[in-house]
Structure formats: C-alpha cells, structure tokens
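Predict both folds.
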Amino acid sequence: MTDVVLPRAEDFDEIAGLLALAFHGGLDPGLLEVERGIFEPERGLLVRDGTTAVAHAAAFTRELGVPGASVPAAHVTMVSVAPTHRRRGLLTALMRRQLREIRDAGREPVAVLWASEGRIYPRFGYGLAAQRLTISCDTTELRVPEPASVPGTLRLDQPAARQAELARLYDRVRADRPGWSSRDERWWRYVLADVKSLREGATERRVLLHEGPAGLDGYALFRTKEEWDRGGPRGEVRVDEVVAENPDAYLALWRLLLSIDLTRRLSCRTAAVDEPLLWLVNEPRQLGAQLSDGLWVRVVDLPAALAARRYATDVDVVIEVTDELLPENAGRWRLVGSPTGATCTATAEPARLACDVRALGELYLGGAGLGALAAAGRVRELAPGTLAAAAPAFGWHRAPAPMEVF
C-alpha cells in the first residue's frame, strides 16, 4: 500500500538514499551535510510503500530572474522513484499534486526545474525556457584581446572568505540576467561548499576577483586539474561561474582563466547561449561549444506570471491557452505589456494566437522565439500579422542563462 506523506526533517537521510539509488550515486557524508542545509521538508512529497520510501518530489523557495523582474518560483528538485516502483504512476501523481499545491498556495506564479531527461516533464506542462552551452576547449592557440583601458586588479582567494562581497555583486548582476536564481545565506553556503567527493580529482575551488576603480566588479569560481603527458603539462581549468558587472572585468577574468600556467584545456558547463566569450576569442569554433537544455519552466498562475515579467516592445494581444492539469489557466487572456509593466486579464475577445501552457513556459524567459514555436506548430496564428507584431515583445536583450543546477 503506497501513501503520500509530508516528509520530516529527520527523513532527509532516507530520501537522500532514494535519490542515490535512482541517480546511481553514492552517499558522501560531507555532501549530505551540505544538502541538508537547503532541504525544505515542508515542501516535499514522499511516497511510502509500508515503511519504505519509494518516491519523492520537493521544491526550494527561491526567486527566478525573468525579463525585467524577479519572481517567486518553485524550484522543483529531488524527484525520484525507486527502481522497484517504476511504471506505477507515482511520478505522475507527485507532479500533479505538487502543481496543484503550488497553485493553491498562490505565492509562486511559475515552477522551474532541471530535467534528468527532456522527455519527462513536457507532459506536465513544462517547456524548455533556457538553453546553455557547454565549453570544452584546447587553450593553446586561443587568444582574447588586450584590455582597451587601464586594467583593474586580479586577486585569488578562498571563496568562503569573500562570500558577502560575492553575494552583493551577484545580486547586482542578476538583475539584468533572466534565469539566475536568488541566493540567501543558506544558498551561498551551498554554492560555495567544496565537498572533496565532487572535485573529480581537481583542486579545491578558488575564486578569482577583479577589482576596478569602484571596487569588486567581477569574480570567477574555478578549479584546476593536474595532468601531464609525454609532451609536458596538460592541465585543465574547470570554470563553475563567471560574474562580471562590466566588459573590462569580464575580459580580464577570461584572459587569466584561458592562460593559467601548466594548463592547456578549459571546460565550463553552464555558459550562456549569448556568452560574450564567443565574440572575444580569436577562433570561436575552438571553444567546442555545444548546445544543451537548461531550465524548464511551468506557468502555474497564468495571469500573474505574464503580468510579472516585462516585454521588449509594446504588445497587446489576446491568446487562447489550453491547460489540462490546471484548468484555471485555460481560456482567452488579453496581455498588454511593455518594457515598464504588464497586465493580463481574462477576456471574451477573439483570440489572435493560440497555444498550450507548455509554449508559454518556453516563451517566459525570453529565450525561445515566438516565430520558431509557430514554425514548429506549437503556437497558432489565428489573425494574420499577429506573429510578426507580437514576436519581438517576447524576446529580451539578454538570453536566459542557467547558472546552477539545483
């Protein structure tokens, strides 16, 4: 007999064991202690078969950067089903119940997640809202320009020692980048935690700081990994994140990362699709950039979600939306938006566009093009000329960028 219960804080270790089983990982005590610090048992859903945990889903309480704003978003996480209980509808039951609880709570207009497999979550209304680039390159012949102005100062330090400064800079830069999530004290401790089992043979994490005329204006979190072959050093620089407030800081950070002594390779798993590095290096194809999925967004409260973000140009359009799981989102909605604000209200006016709620998730962060979705048959134009008029509004001047896996 399976029952869905609300987890308790003391259930964390058992849930961690279930996740390790489902994702084929181990149980490292250091990592468990770090993850325990961000666990929110009150937002979990746990399925037991008798006394055994067999399925789980949870969410973190954070904000998500969206075009022109930051909105409360349920950061869905820790989703797993035991191998012995697959194909019994447990995942479907958890996802449906979670969405209903998020909607009924009325605090978060959207949910967001990283997908273990891209085919799983579209059936629950999640749309691919932000892609990412993975970079893996040989740095031997890569070059970036010399600084055009007087260079700032670069320093190396231990990340935890500079947490407060990193947090302030991150918040300033986050305001202009859709896809970045808020980080409170707990989350900064989690992000900067340096669990040895996750290093994969690399060094401890270091922070590279750039100080300009006004103080700290850029940082990079990275590791290095020693390697030698018959020809000499072949070390690797592994970049976790680069946060820069201006082009000078950005260029200085990458110039150093690409030229660290005794290294010949560099990798980064979460570069933005509009990463400025692509336009700085002398040979972009040598970066080995590959496109992958990142954030998946589910619109939970349609009028609140569409009114919360900003729009690149003025838009006034009626959209007919279908949503099988949350029928409150279904119907015709008039969206009136601009770079300074937006409203979204139910209407009986004729619709000019039609789509399902998944397509709205794909559009929400400004990464997917309205025209591209229409070409794929995901959005239908009901009144000629509407696509061309409305498409620019749903974009943004910065592409959404997944910064961290949660």
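Second protein follows, with its predicted structure tokens after the sequence.
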Amino acid sequence: MQVNFRALSLSHKNAPVQIREIISLDEKAVHGILLKIKDFFNLNDTLILSTCNRTEVYYSHDQDISTELIKLIGLEKGLVDIVNYLEYFEVINDDRAAIRHLFRVSMGLEAQVVGDIQISNQIKRAYQASADLDMTGPFLHRLMHTVFFTNKRIVQETAFRDGAASLSYAAIELIESLTSNTFEPRILLIGVGEIGEDVAKNMVHLPSAKVKITNRTLSKAEPIAAEMGFEVVPFENCLDAMEEADVIVSSIQRSEPFITKELVKKFQINSYKLLVDLSVPRSIETSVEDVPGVILYNVDNIRSKASETLEKRLASVPRVEEIIEESIKEFFDWKKEMIASPTINKLKQSLEQIRQEEMARFMKNADKKEYAVIDKITKSMMQKVLKVPVVQLRAACQRDQAEEMIQIISDLFDLERVKTE
C-alpha cells in the first residue's frame, strides 16, 4: 500500500517570534499531542519537531488532516483561537516534497543560521519521542535512519558542518561586535539548557570577557563553569548579577517573561546594557528597550556577520543538496519496493499452501527420511518458481509500473483469495 507522507510547518520563514512562541511545544506538550494523534487518527508514522525556530508535524495519512492537527496543538496548548493562526502554517501534502523538507530541516539548510548543528540532536530527540510511543513504523524508521546516514555523509564529505556557526555562535558574534569598545565586558548567562550550554562553550571566542553563569539547578551550571573557567552565581543572586553585567544572555524556558521592563528600570545603567533573548517563548519583555541604555536582540533579529565559517558552509550547500537528492532517490527506491511486499508475501503463501496440500496428499505413507527429501526438493522448486515473478515485480517498481505487474501476478495466481498472516 502506498504511504502518503505529509508535513505541517510553522517556522521563522513564515511566522514571527511572537507567533512561534505561542505555538512552541515543550517535551510534555509533544508527548500529549502524540498521544492524541495516536488515539484520534491511529497514525503509525508521526514525528513532531519543536525548536526555537519551528514547530512541525510529519505524518503519514491518506488524507490532508493538517487543520485537525493544528486544532490538536491548540487543544494541548489551551488556545481556543488556534484557527486564527492557520495562515502561518505551511502545509506540504506532496510525498516527495514533504520528505525533501524533512531532509533539508534535518541537515540545517532551513535553519536561521545555515548549518546550525543543534538541529541534528533535536531531530534525534523528536524521533525518540515517537519511537517511545510506538508511533514509528517501518516507513518512518527507514526514513529517519536514511536522514541520520545522510547527516554523517555531509559531515564526512563536506565543510558544511565545519566551524562553530550556529544560532548560539551568531549571538557570540553579535556580543563581540557590540562590546568591541568595552574593556573586559561582563557577561551573565542565564540558563544552561541545550542552547545555553552551546553559548557557554562558544564564549571561548570572547577571551577578554568576564563570564558568569546561573541556572535554577546549580548542579547543571557547575560542571560547565568548571570546564570553561567561569564563575557560578546561585540563582537566588541572579538579580544582583544582572545589574552588574554589561551583557545578559537569557535562554531559560518560562511561560511568562523573566526579565521585565519594571525590573530593568531598577538597574543603574552607566553606559549600556545589552540583552540577548535566545528563548522561545521569549523570556525578556520587548518593552525593556524603552529603558534608556538598553539594547535588546531576540532569535529573530540576531544575524551572524559574514564570517569565513559561514562562507565555507554556503559554498558547500550545492554539494549538500546533491547528497540529499542521492539519499532521497535511494529512499524512494526502497519505498517503491514496499508496494510490492504484500503481493510477494501473498505469492509465497499461495505457493506454500499448494506445496503443503500436495505433500499431505502424496506423502501419507512416506517415512521420515523420504518425507525430508521430498520436502527439501519441493521447497527448492517453489523458490525457483518464485524467483522470476519477484524479480519482474521489483523491476516494475523501479519503472513505476508496479500496479500493472501486481494486477497481472494477482490474477495469474488468484492472490485475492490469499489472506496475509
């Protein structure tokens, strides 16, 4: 049976951050939506990806159920007006286009900073979340392992993943540019989740900076600080550290802003205070820019300056796209053969049934030795009879003529009467 793979995408390309943060899903929400999809639609191949730049659902279904899936997201998020956001979602119903989109996202071609390495781990976690709920059938398993193999090829064969260009590194480049006239700028990093940890590691590109990090869970901040030689600030002392800092980088997950205009107004700002918000939903109120001396950047307006690393990545894009197309072709060759599998199984069962009936009919009085010999001979004959139609059927799949050949073989061997186990 043909598998219709589809995609539903809300990303930085079609929705501003104020929309993305409303639709953004944490692990608990992803788990809840997957369960709802399983219960309501009985889908086997489903993947939900939610990052600071995108929320996407990939699924296999005979019909376009994108609107229903968006409503499920609204149900999980408690958004009664979710239909008002339909225009921000891109719906991809073409099978090959949806698969190509997944490859491009997974490789970092669709990232805000081209080649962002964080997406690879985010894709793996999304796949694991689906696998844990038994929502990854043979189709999605094969597809995802092809994606992972393609990623490995790109790392080994191109310069696309060389260097440290990522959203986190783009933030570091921004900080470096805006603090170039500040002697030993004081930087406070709030939150050391995946993005925060990546920011911390990229701080090596700011050797003159005085970096402090804080996190709700102190035990998560301490090993990172020890590795990088940073100072750890207990979370309860965060406000004092914010007032002292020239630069505050926030990458914490909260439903409401952590840094507000009222809070920032209390700070004594002698020259400037740069606030960098890498959180989705945003953790810094946009109105803080009304406070004199405050400069605010978020995930939408952080742009990496032209760098040698980024130039190398962009130069590698054509080869990356070639590798992706090679992988997609290989996957579709496998996908075509999937169409023939039920017919091949029915044919095997039909011939085995005939063999068993004839063995039972003519070998009633045979001893064990005679039975074993004839059993071996008839099995060998059956395999040779099977060989030609199976080879022809697989060849027809590659020529996109599978349906015709399936019908011929089904009629010839009367396979409609055979029930697959």
